[in-house]
Amino acid sequence: MRNQWGRVQLLSDRAGSRFQSEHTRRVNAGRLSGEVFVSDEARQTVTVLNVAADGRYAFGRTAGLAADVFLHRGQCQQALTFASGQRLSCIVIQTPRGLQGRSIRAGSPGGRA
Predict the structure, then answer these.
(1) What is the pLDDT at residue 109?
(2) For residue 108, pLDDT beyond 70
(3) Could you tell me the residue ranges of all domains in the chain?
(4) pLDDT value at residue 59
(5) Which terminus of the chain, N or C, has fewer Cβ atoms within 10 Å?
């Protein structure tokens, strides 16, 4: 069997965010680190439901996900104050502790608020 190899179209670089992999760090006792790249196309809109008294963290909900998303001010790309009913754009990831928002921005993906 012979394959006809030819030129392929190169994938263009996509805008996105890089995150340190906590799992990689834990399983090798901190000797190695790893990064995860997530494209901005994976961003979702989250509506803030509950805000902690100190305002450092909140819980939100996004369409299509059954569980609430944990949002922490340390994951915000700019200075944000969480408010109930606020719409945010973030990348939702699954962690051992549940869904968490990373790379949090004000507004919706694509600039739609």
Answers:
(1) 62
(2) no
(3) 42-111
(4) 96
(5) N
